[in-house]
Amino acid sequence: MQDYRLEPARLSDTARLAAMSQALVEAGLRPRWDAQRIGWHVRDAESVVLTARSDRGIAGFAVMRFGDETAHLNLLAVEPAHRRRGVARRLLTWLEESALTAGTYIIGLELRAGNEAAREFYRALGYRETARVPGYYQGIEAALRMERDVRVSRPTAARS
What we know:
alpha+beta, 4 helices
């Protein structure tokens, strides 16, 4: 099994991360997560842009912004060649543990309503659906809002 290192993103990574977002998250939409926007989060003290790196480069990444009471997972993407290897779970777990340490207990996110794989992924990790937002994605697609209280243990089946 390939080893992945979790590391904060560097400004030099932002073009690559923007390309990944456009291909893996924003497909079919006008891109909103360009290198400049991701770079803003890399520099922002209230945000974490975390990468999972393999010997071949960036396998996945996540962007989370922390608030006083809640955190928001803005992006999570894993290259198809690296999926089903625990990369997304490791990224999210690291961010959840950081939120818990910081005293930020609720993590929220939105995902495309048609992305059943992502919906099942988050559900298996203890996230619950809180709302459906019609037209959230540029009037093209609805979003599902999900959240998790990181003080509550994950479902037993999701641990490994």
